């Protein structure tokens, strides 16, 4: 089975721009979560989607949004980019919604640099 | 308020010795705990987990211990190998919460 794929792998943007990141989960997985990892920080939860519905959202401003398509692929969008948005954005999929006993499978991440 | 803490940012051990990575949590509602390993330029990969009804889970060289009263868990790697050098994340979740809460990670270096 192919793993979780994320595109693009690397991205450079300037402040004020917006960016869209894409994630294709493992085939058959219906839950997709997004995390942000910044240097020296753990993985900060952004949001989780299941069956095209956002189930949970982390403590991020409204500039961060996402969606999930009927084929379970997911996109996240960051508008009005700030320097502090520079990070590794990780997507993780699981067969069912996350939580206890649900192992997540992570993609390689998209590294975003905001100049 | 960080609910999952890994107080040691880094750990260095000699090949063949034991590596002990620690994790503390504050949310008593957490009932499932996982460890992930992350190599540079890759996403985290699942390593081992433990349910709150257990106090120990073992998988080969990896053992996770859970002390619920102390809200503390640890990952033991015995014997440590150079290929174990990576960042280790502790994560905790609660039933139906829909997300895992991760610690900041501990960078393990195993020296040959």
Shape of chain A: globular
Query: Strand share of the residues of chain A?
Result: over 45%
* Morphology of chain B: globular
Straight-line distance between termini of chain A: 37 Å
User: Largest chain interface and its two residue counts?
Assistant: A-B, 30 and 30 residues
Structural class of chain A: mainly beta
* Main beta sheet of chain B: 6 strands, mixed
Mean pLDDT of chain B: 92
Explain what you see:
The complex is a heterodimer of chains A (115) and B (112). Chain A is globular, with a radius of gyration of 13 Å. In chain A, 0% of the residues lie in helices and 50% in strands. Chain A is an all-beta fold and 115 residues long. In chain A, strands 2, 4, 5, 6, 9, 10 and 11 form a seven-stranded mixed sheet that branches. In chain A, strands 1-3-8-7 form a four-stranded antiparallel sheet, with no helix packed on it. The model of chain A has no long low-confidence stretch (mean pLDDT 91). Chain B has 112 residues and is mainly beta. Chain B contains no helices and eleven strands. In chain B, strands 2, 4, 5, 9, 10 and 11 form a six-stranded mixed sheet that branches. In chain B, strands 1-3-8-7-6 form a five-stranded antiparallel sheet, with no helix packed on it. The radius of gyration of chain B is 13 Å and the shape is globular. The chains are: A mainly beta (115), B mainly beta (112). Chain A binds chain B through residues 4, 33, 35, 40-45, 48, 50, 55-56, 58, 90-92, 97-109, and chain B through 4, 6, 9, 31-32, 34, 36, 41-46, 49, 51, 89, 91, 93-105.
């Amino acid at each position: 089975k192919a793993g979780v794929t994320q595109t693009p792998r690397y991205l450079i943007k300037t402040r004020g721009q917006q960016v869209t990141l894409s994630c294709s989960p493992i085939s058959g997985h219906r839950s997709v979560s997004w995390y942000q990892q910044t240097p020296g920080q753990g993985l900060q939860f952004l949001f989780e989607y299941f069956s095209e519905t956002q189930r949970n959202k982390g403590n991020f401003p409204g500039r961060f949004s996402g969606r999930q398509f009927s084929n379970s692929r997911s996109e996240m969008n960051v508008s009005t980019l700030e320097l502090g948005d520079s990070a590794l954005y990780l997507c993780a999929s699981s067969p069912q919604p996350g939580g206890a006993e649900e192992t997540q499978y992570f993609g390689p991440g998209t590294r975003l640099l905001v100049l | 308020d960080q609910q999952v803490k890994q107080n040691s940012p880094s750990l260095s051990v000699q090949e063949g010795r034991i590596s002990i990575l620690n994790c503390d949590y504050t949310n008593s509602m957490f009932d499932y705990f996982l460890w992930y390993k992350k190599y540079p330029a890759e996403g985290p990969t699942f390593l081992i987990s433990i349910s709150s009804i257990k106090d120990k889970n073992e998988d080969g060289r990896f053992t996770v211990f859970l002390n619920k009263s102390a809200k503390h868990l640890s990952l033991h790697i015995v014997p440590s190998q150079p290929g174990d050098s990576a960042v280790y994340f502790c994560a905790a979740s609660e039933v139906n919460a829909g997300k895992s809460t991760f610690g900041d990670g501990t960078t393990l270096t195993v020296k040959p």
